[in-house]
Amino acid sequence: MKVFTAQQIYNADKATIERQQISSDELMERAATQIFNWMHLRMQGAPVKIHLFCGIGNNGGDGLALARQLWEHGYNIAVYVVKYSEKRSKDFLTNLDRLKDRKIWPVYLDADSELPSIGPDDIIVDAIFGIGLNRTPDDWVSQLIQHLNKTKAFILSVDIPSGLFTDSVPKDSASVIQSNYVLSFQVPKLVFFLPQTGIYVEQWEVLDIGLDTAYLMETETEYELIAKNEVLQFYRPRTKYSHKGTYGHSLIIGGSYGKIGAVTLASKSALKAGSGLVTAYVPECGYQIVQTSVPEVMVLTNGESLIEAIDFEIEPTVIGIGIGMGTEDKTVKALEKFLKVNKMPLVVDADALNILSKNQNLLQFLPKESILTPHPKELERLVGKWKDDFEKLKKVKEFSEKQNVVMVIKGAHTITFFKGRGYINTTGNPGMATAGSGDTLTGIITGLVAQGYPSLHAAILGVYIHGKSADLSIANKGYQALTATDIIESMGSAFIDLFTSPEKEAPVEVETNEN
Ligand SMILES: NC(=O)C1=CN([C@@H]2O[C@H](COP(=O)(O)OP(=O)(O)OC[C@H]3O[C@@H](n4cnc5c(N)ncnc54)[C@H](O)[C@@H]3O)[C@@H](O)[C@H]2O)[C@@H](O)CC1
Ligand SMILES: Nc1ncnc2c1ncn2[C@@H]1O[C@H](COP(=O)(O)OP(=O)(O)O)[C@@H](O)[C@H]1O
Ligand SMILES: [K+]
Predict the structure, then answer these.
(1) 463 part of a folded domain
(2) At what angle do helices 376-383 and 350-358 cross, to 10 degrees?
(3) Interface pTM, i.e. ipTM
(4) Is this prediction's pTM over 0.90?
(5) Is residue 183 part of a domain?
(6) What ligand 2 atom has the least distance to the C-alpha of 410?
(7) Does ligand 1 come within 6 angstroms of the Cβ of 215?
């Protein structure tokens, strides 16, 4: 699913209005109807008090149109107009008149108003600011937002939590609605998925408001959301007459005394991802450990307790390198020498990334389209500190383009960057913040490259499967008990899941003014 910028959404609006020959007010009515249907389906007329806080722009207009529909179906509503500006939008005014025609009188809130009282079991509809927010709200609006956040009421945000910008991090967290549920029109917003802004969104869902399909299809976006449908497009089925040679040979290089487990996890993951053969390259102290813990994996050794040279006779298809490897001088030299002669595609993680960060002249030796999988600290060492998430994205994008590598930025929503585009993963959970889960990812991606997936596809599918395995595991493990080994064990189910469970319940019918 594409992730549009605010400007692209405004353009989609405009294209829809022109091509479907509807008015902007009719489009607003569609949007409000979709939210009404969503609420009505769940509330079934329950007499819960619904407080609708509406701004004076189109987000507020949506709120007013929703208020009217709720009122017409007998819901118990209170409407507030948050007068943060004198510049009211046309469709806001149209919908305000429609309310007045029905003798529904909103409470007008300004800097001098008392803060409304709201019960813990009430519902708040947040339609104060939408994607048009262009500066931090005034103090009194921030105070109102803080007041709403402090109530125990459920907060449903229209399109985006009010106070959240679409392209920057809010300066003051107190001026942003802490939303329980966001109903986002047509497309999700990038800020739902970044660590500094995603915290305002507990859950989100997209509502189809029938924006012009041609515009949506033709418009290129910088970001794409990756769910099952997206990865299925490049999934490579196994063929009947294939053999283990068909599915490549992964070489996993890493490990040092006390950190052989990392290589064991990665090797096993590469096998489970479908790699035909897997060899681990470890110091001698790891020989018995790897051989006994994963009998399917072959083992090559060098050095006693750490890798002192990287030199082998075999011809792997792809090499995953760096996990548990350490950054001792001998290992640094070994890596340097190896990078200067190596031509094989690489998946670079952990200590190999740390070594590259300190020896940036080595970056030039990475084969093009290598895959780098840094966690936040490793990324900082590689590209330097960033002031906020947006600067981080910019730095990663530049780095990936300059070095011609695939960058996998690990986190709650891992983002894979390549050739100027970002692919945002939707699987995974906080249980994955556990030792070795990154090693597992390195193994999975290596195993996919071995089977012939191009680097970008291997990274995107690998990240998806890794998160999906963890999601399937927590059903009987819970977040706390989830381990990297559980992730590996659920990989089979994650692959099967690609073809079994339906992606999503069918969307609610769009009721428009035309029918
Ligand atoms: N295609 C879509 O997605 C549709 C969007 N609609 C709604 O339209 C919204 C966007 O509406 P608008 O462009 O009117 O913008 P908003 O309603 O988000 O904001 C209203 C106006 O307030 C002003 N403003 C911004 N920040 C301010 C601040 N801190 N203090 C005071 N004034 C400030 C700006 O001039 C802005 O245009 C969307 O979020 C959505 O809810 C729907 O009505 C219909 C279809
Ligand atoms: N809160 C979270 N939600 C979803 N995924 C997470 C979360 N925390 C960590 N992960 C995932 O777990 C993995 C952790 O990798 P990493 O930090 O390298 O672990 P390790 O070094 O222990 O192997 C990454 O793939 C990351 O995306
Ligand atoms: K809002």
Answers:
(1) yes
(2) 20
(3) 0.92
(4) yes
(5) yes
(6) 27
(7) no
